Amino acid sequence: MKKLETKSTVLLKHHLKALKMPTMHEECEKIAARCAKENVDHLGFLLQLCEQELIDRERRAAERRLKAAKFPNYKTLEDFKFEAQPTVNRILVSELMRGEYIEKRESIILIGHPGTGKTHIATALGIAACGQGKKVRFHRVTELITQLMEAREERQLMRMKNQLAKLDLLILDELGYVPASKLGSELLFDVISAAYERTSVIVTTNLPFEQWTEVLGSQRLTGAVLDRLTHHCHILEATGESYRLKDARKRSSKRKNPRSDDKPGN
Ligand code: ADP
Ligand code: MG
C-alpha cells in the first residue's frame, strides 16, 4: 500500500511539473497532510492547492515586472515626505497611485528643480503600477536616446519599438539634462508619438515647457511632442528647494550644534 502511494505521488509530481504548477508540486504533500488532519474534503483540498499556486504565480509575475521595469532605486510613496515638498499636490499623487490614469492612457509630467523628488515620485508610481499588473519600463531620456540610436545602427530599431509598444507605462526620466541631437530628438519623438493614446508616459523634467525647444532642437518637433504629451495629462510641479540640499544642510547644522533640535532656516 505504502509503495503504491509513493508511486502515485511520484507520478502526480511528474504531472504537476509537466503542467507547470511549481507551487502545487512543492506543496501538495504538505497541504494534503494538513487537509487530512483537518478533515477537509477533496474539493477543499484542490481549492487550497489552486489558491496557493495562484498566489505564488502572481507574486512571481510581480517580481518579474519589477525587475523588467529597471528602476534605478526602490522608492515608495511611504518614503516620500510631503511636508518637505509642500508644493507637490499630495491629493493628486495619491489619486495617481491608484493607477486609473494608465487605464485611460493618460500621461504625467513632473516638473521641478533638481532634487525635488521627481524621480522618487515617478519611481513610486511605476512600482505601484507593477503591483497592479502593469508592464512598466523606466528609462533615463539620454540613455533611451543612445539605445535608440544604437538599435537603429544595428537595424534593431523596429524590434526595440515593438518592445516599447508592449508597455502599459513608459517612464522618461530627466528630459532636459542634455540637449539631444537632431536624430536623437526625432527618435524620441517617434517613441512619444507611438505611445500617444496607447501607453501612459511619465516624464520628469527640470525644464519649463518654454525651454523644451533647447533640448529637442526644433520648435516644430517640440510643439508636436508637447501636443501629444499634454493632451490627456496630469501636471505635478515641485517648486521647492532640493531635498538633498536641505537634508545635507540639516545634517551639517546638527553636527555643528548637536544639542539643538532647531530646523535649519529654509
Ligand atoms: P529629482 O528627480 O527631482 O532630481 P530625486 O527624486 O532624485 O529628485 O530626489 C533626490 C533624493 O532625495 C532621492 O534620494 C529622493 O529619494 C530624496 N527625496 C527627494 N524629495 C524627497 C521627499 N520629499 N521626501 C523624502 N525623500 C526625498
Ligand atoms: Mg531625477
If you consult CATH, what is the topology of the largest domain?
Rossmann fold
Q: Average pLDDT, to the nearest integer?
A: 91
Spatial strand order of the main sheet: 2-3-4-1-5
Sheet/helix structural class: alpha/beta
Shape: globular
Query: In percent terms, what proportion of residues is strand?
Result: 5-15%
Q: Report how far the terminal alpha carbons are from each other.
A: 79 Å
Number of strands: 5
Gyration radius (Cα, Å) is: 25 Å
Total number of helices: 12
How many structural units, i.e. domains?
2
Q: What would CATH call the class of the largest domain?
A: Alpha Beta
Q: Architecture of the largest domain in CATH?
A: 3-Layer(aba) Sandwich
Question: How much helicity do the residues have?
Answer: 55-70%
Write up what this structure looks like:
The chain is an alpha/beta fold and 266 residues long. The chain folds into two domains: 2-63; 70-246, Rossmann fold (3-Layer(aba) Sandwich). The protein contains twelve helices and five strands. The chain has helices spanning 2-18, 22-37, 42-69, 90-97, 100-103, 118-131, 141-153, 157-165, 182-195, 212-216, 219-231, 243-256, and strands at 107-112, 136-140, 169-175, 200-205, 233-238. The protein has a five-stranded parallel beta sheet with strand order 2-3-4-1-5. Helix 7 packs across helix 9 and helix 9 packs parallel to helix 11. Mean pLDDT is 91; it is low at 260-266. It binds adenosine-5'-diphosphate and magnesium ion. The site of magnesium ion has 5 residues, from helix 6 and strand 3.
